């Protein structure tokens, strides 16, 4: 979400799409209080997006859900070199990463968002890779 100063991955998505790679985006059901039903969906065309009530752009409801993903790009407010990340606290991406255990996950952040330590919980899922505007790190397993 650019209005929250998250790193813009739009150019990456565009470059992948131009190379014929299918890109799925997070999708959350509307109107469910508290714990949103979330998944990744593949837009069928450039106009297949809607704006979710929380303000982010997502694929339209009719877009097909992803059953397998090779890579998952994950946003963060802060991240460690071990791939531990701090999001907005709802755990959406932690649940999504658990649903795709064979996918590689990469957290994208600005270099100044790298931290030595972040508080973690049992449900937190670290990412496999950390990519900042200055370096790429393979998180230790």
Chain-wise SSE layout:
Blueprint: H1 10-18, E1 25-28, E2 38-41, E3 49-51, E4 57-59, E5 71-75, E6 78-80, E7 85-86, H2 92-99, E8 104-108, E9 114-115, E10 129-131, E11 136-138
Parallel strand pairs: 5-8, 6-9, 8-10
Antiparallel strand pairs: 1-2, 3-4, 6-7, 10-11
Summary tags:
2 helices, four-stranded mixed beta sheet, three-stranded mixed beta sheet, alpha/beta, 11 strands, 141 residues
Description:
This protein has 141 residues and is α/β, with parallel strands linked by helices. Helices cover 12% and strands 26% of the residues. The chain has two helices and eleven strands, in the order H-E-E-E-E-E-E-E-H-E-E-E-E. The strands form four sheets. The chain has a four-stranded mixed sheet, with no helix packed on it. Strands 7-6-9 form a three-stranded mixed sheet, with no helix packed on it. The chain is globular. The protein starts with 9 loop residues before the first helix and ends with a strand. The model has no long low-confidence stretch (mean pLDDT 85).
